Amino acid sequence: MSELNAPHPLSAYGWDSGFADSFTPHAAEGLVPGRIVRVDRGRCDLVVADGGTGVRHVMADTSLVTTGDPLNIMCTGDWAAVDLAGGYVRALLPRRTAFVRSTSSKRSEGQILAANVDHAVVAVSLAVELDLGRIERFLTLAWESGATPLVVLTKADLVPDPATLAHLVADAQTAAPGVTVLAVSAETGEGVDALAAELSGGASVLLGQSGAGKSTLANALVGGEVQTVRATRDRDGKGRHTTTTRNLLPLPGGGVLIDTPGLRGVGLWDAEDGVGRTFPEIEALAEDCRFHDCGHTTEPGCAVLAALQDGTLPARRLDSYRKLLRENEWIASRTDARLRSEIRRDWKRKQAEGRASMARKRGVS
User: Fold this and answer.
1) Neighbouring-strand partners of residue 148
2) Where are the alpha helices (DSSP H) in the chain?
């Protein structure tokens, strides 16, 4: 293959013609593209082309693109325009997808966990009882991100009976309609090849609670001990946050994997569309309700309640749907209130500045 037709050295990390088009104005400034592998305290690690056909890792200062907006702060998976000579990240390229959750703080802000991913892998441990509601919560955020979700039931070797394992997979599928559900054991290798095939060639983010076996799974997919693994607590199956930062790892079959720390809290953030995609059967039923703004509680002619009554819609699914919608509406109202408060403060500040300016003018005159 001639050098003219050779793939870009960063193609294995997700670089394509779309990102190249976005980078055009930065190339004219002598900057180079790089994908952020890790962010840490005002600096980040990036992978860039080495000038030939390979890549190399560099570290750069992020102060020029640091922002007070937590949704626009750089994160693992971002593509950046890098000044190699100066050692700075000069700009971030527009994101295609972004996995965002609400923070646990009372400020109701969004926190971005990963950017530019094609697949959101929701890891759920079979060492503890399946929490279908938590699967639905992760799926809601995954759909909202723009990525395609995938549910992976880890530690399948702990369920030696094939019939029981099949039953658990079927249970997970009820919480994830239209989503691939795989049972995987990093210890025995069961299902790892199937998962690797699903993720090949794209960018994926690995999500789940502490103790879900994400680091062990990442090692199995990457084919080496790249992530430290610690045992989970016997009493509750919970882990100890083995992964403390978000790391981007190249996969042998092409593509990259972003491993994230275990998430204790997974709050929704502007995820109405994600809720709808997680509960497609309820959304489809709602289209046949008599009233277009039906709340599916006591309204006459409600197709959702009719399906609940005849048993075609499980009560657990409707309860979970309502819970996530209520949470999303609450977060939206808190956010709107915060924005209104910021607007009022800005207005009062400008008023005060105006009064001060008038006072100075009177003093001069």
Assistant:
1) 119
2) 17-27, 132-145, 162-175, 192-199, 214-222, 272-278, 280-286, 303-310, 315-364
Encode burial over 336-352: b for 16+ CB neighbours within 10 A, e otherwise.
eeeeeeeeeeeeeeeee
Strand, helix or coil for residue 239: coil
Helix (H) / strand (E) element for 345: namely helix 315-364
Query: Contact at 8 Å (CB) between 122 and 136?
Result: no
CA diameter of the chain = 91
- Residue 66's identity, in one-letter code, is T
By the 8 A CB rule, do 210 and 183 touch? no
Amino acid letter, 324: L
Question: Torsion angle of alpha carbons 35, 37, 40, 44, nearest 10°?
Answer: -30
**Do 79 and 116 contact (CB within 8 A), yes or no?**
yes
Beta bridge partners of 36: 46
Q: What is the pTM of this model?
A: 0.81
For 180-185, what is the mean pLDDT? 97
Q: What is the C-alpha radius of gyration for the chain, rounded to an integer number of angstroms?
A: 24
Sheet with 148-154: strands ordered across: 181-183, 148-154, 119-125, 203-207, 256-259, 247-250
| Distance in angstroms (rounded) separating the CA atoms of residues 180 and 193 | 14
Cα atoms found within 13 Å of the Cα of residue 317, Cβ hemisphere only:
23
Per-residue CA distances from 5 to 1, 10, 262 (Å): 6, 14, 42
CB under 8 Å to 59, separation ≥6 — which residues? 43, 44, 45, 46, 87
**What is the rounded CA–CA span in Å between residue 241 and residue 250?**
22
Contacts of 321 (CB under 8 A, 6+ apart): 275, 279, 282
- By C-alpha distance, which of 331, 264, 330 is closest to 109? 331
- The answer to whether 117 and 97 have CB atoms below 8 angstroms apart is yes
Give pLDDT tens digits for 49-72: 998 889 999 999 999 998 877 778
